[in-house]
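User: Sequence in, structure out. Go.
Assistant: Echoing your sequence, followed by the structure tokens.
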Amino acid sequence: MGYDILSKIIEFTDSEEPLEKRLEDAAGLLADSFAFDQCAIYLLNTEKSKLNLSVVVGNKQGCQQEYKAGEGLSGLAMKQGKPIIITHSRPNKELWRGVYDKGALGFTTIICAPVKDDIFYGILYLKNREKKTIPPKKRRLLDVITLQLATAIKNYECIIHLTDANKKMQDMQARLVHAEKLLALGEMAATLAHEIRNPLMSIGGFAKRLHQQLGPDSSHTVYVQRIVKEVERLERLMDGIVHFSEKDGYELSQEDINSIMDEVIQFFEDEFKRNGIYVAKTLSPDMPMVEVDRQQVKLAFNNLLANAIQAMGGGGILILQTRQEGGWIVAEVSDTGGGIDPKIMGNIFNPFYTTKASGTGLGLAITHSIITNHKGIIEVNNNIGVGVTFTIKLPGAAKAGSNQRAIGG
């Protein structure tokens, strides 16, 4: 009989069902096999130092949702590290062997067994209204069953941790691939910028001189004006390429992220008014300092706000927030511009990729480059039909001070 129960428990706990379903099947089998009215399994929440109810089968009367560490018979079983089997002649009392346990009210026999191996994972509760005697063979069987339950929980937690670790590794690999792509494109862009800039300046200079010499009635004026306009557009593109390509010479100093955000907001005030954009600002006070190149980080936020303004051309709400998360200083830029087409989400940080007729495709690439060069993280939450949120995370400064130093070189 004992072997059959254990075999069934192993079958349940080794299945591919969700952990809660496996534990529920095991609890049901135990309630039937031991002929108890109720079987409940609590799992330990180490962060909150509590035992939370995972599953309960049978009569659910008096089954508490949680036990604090050290509370009730579960606390006594945790302390002793072995099953507690108690019979009580007065089931209407909540005090058992000097231990107050509200969940025991109305029951006469209770088994409270730790689910553990080298680590404590939870508690198995068996309760019965009538008095029961547990033979030694079943007591030994209970030890093996709780160990099997502990193994199942341990394996489940290992799988969860491995899944999380694998996801983090995949994210890191994607970032490394993206960084290599940016590096290669940056080197190519720097070479192109150097080769193009000098002849471009000559073309622009000569075109402006021709424009000055032509009379206002000349039929060629419109063509010369077009040349000047296109050269200016190319010069802006070259400036963007230079910003994107430059990795050296960042001047780091300890800065207040709120001050940087305020400067960026002030820079775009006229644009906000012209486009009917309301700015909602929530900057957390007394934020720790960040060690950054102030001008570079301002450029990164300038690009994000410029994108938001273009996305909300017909008006909208721009939400700017700062906060601290552990060692990270976090700034968020949210707009109500309708979000980004999911088909292009994978390309938004790629250089020269743009869906705008007059865009260079370098704004977000430059922002990404600046943030990663500061050992930061940029994340995107795209809410289709509503808007997009860019989250910038920068490491907090190690210590206060105003000493400057350069990175790169």
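User: And one key feature?
Assistant: The domain at 2-162 is CATH 3.30.450.40 (Beta-Lactamase).
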